[in-house]
Amino acid sequence: MSGSRHLVDRAEVWLGVHDASIMLGVSPATLRRWSAAGKVQAFTTPGGHRRYAWSMIQQLLHQPPGGLSLSALGESRERLARTVERHVSTVCRDIAWLQTADEETRCLLALSGRAMVDGLLGYVDAHSPDERDAAIRPAVEAAALHGRVTAAHHGDLGETVAALHHFRGLLVGELSELACRHRLEISQTTRLLARTDDGVDRLVVALVGSHAAVTEAAEAVG
After folding, report:
1. Mean pLDDT of the region 31-56
2. What is the pLDDT, as a whole number, of residue 208?
3. Who has the most CB within 10 Å: 82, 128, 131, 202?
4. pLDDT in tens, 81-109
5. Dihedral angle at the C-alpha atoms of 145, 148, 152, 157, nearest 10 degrees?
6. Using CA atoms, how far apart are residues 96 and 93, in angstroms rounded to an integer?
7. What pLDDT sits at residue 20?
8. Which residues lie closer than 8 Å to 60 by C-beta, 6 or more apart?
9. For 68, which DSSP code?
């Protein structure tokens, strides 16, 4: 546990500005501004240090983005998916092992890649835990497939994970622009982007885990 995390009472855990900003995916300076403006509640210690309630952070991360949906904002998942896929396909050209993969493998990965995009957008757009789980499940399965195929072709795991992180950056950029165009509240934008990060993290875990399982199995046989 970090030195900035303290148990103030038996019911709540409080985080320092550094830990809280990492969880929310914003800079410490931004979080301080939000606190000063009253947009995020904070407890100030006698020494003048801000502390943020763990429960409040969790609530921000897991609430739907202000009750809004992409369609309500005039944005279609299809357009977002096409935009992200177009840029990701450019990045994939730099993955060495893909250049020697057969057409069937490349087609399989393209289809599963679309499943990841669709699933993640559904996860971001969902309004309940059940909807989120249902939306992300096919995307997690597709990410695991990518990990297995990469391992089977002796592909570099780092390159594949880097492409997934690039995908995260593209989607965060698109959603940030969307939030600016519609002048969303800070809390809404934060939840939108935090949900995106959480969804991509699930995909990375699935991809790396399946890659490790195939690699370990191959080593055991060898």
Report:
1. 80
2. 94
3. 202
4. 777 777 766 667 777 777 778 888 888 88
5. 110
6. 8
7. 82
8. 24, 40, 187, 190, 191, 194
9. -
Q: Produce one character per residue of 149-160: b if its CB has 16 or more CB atoms within 10 Å, e if not.
A: bbbeeebeeebb
3-state secondary structure of 61: helix
pLDDT at 8: 40
Q: Identify which of 45, 18, 47, 53 has the alpha carbon closest to the alpha carbon of residue 32.
A: 18
Q: Coil, helix or strand for 51?
A: strand
Name the region of 125 (left: φ>0; alpha: ψ -120 to 50; beta: rest). Answer: alpha
Where do runs of H (alpha helix) occur along the chain? 17-24, 28-36, 54-62, 77-92, 103-125, 129-152, 157-181, 186-221
> What is the residue whose two structure tokens read 């949906």?
69
Task: Work out the burial of residue 141: count CB atoms within 10 Å of its CB; fewer than 13 is exposed, 13-18 middle, 19 or more buried.
Answer: middle
Q: What are phi and psi of 44, to 5 degrees?
A: -105, 125
pLDDT grade for 2, boundaries at 50, 70 and 90: very low
What pLDDT shows up at residue 45?
84
Amino acid, res. 198: D
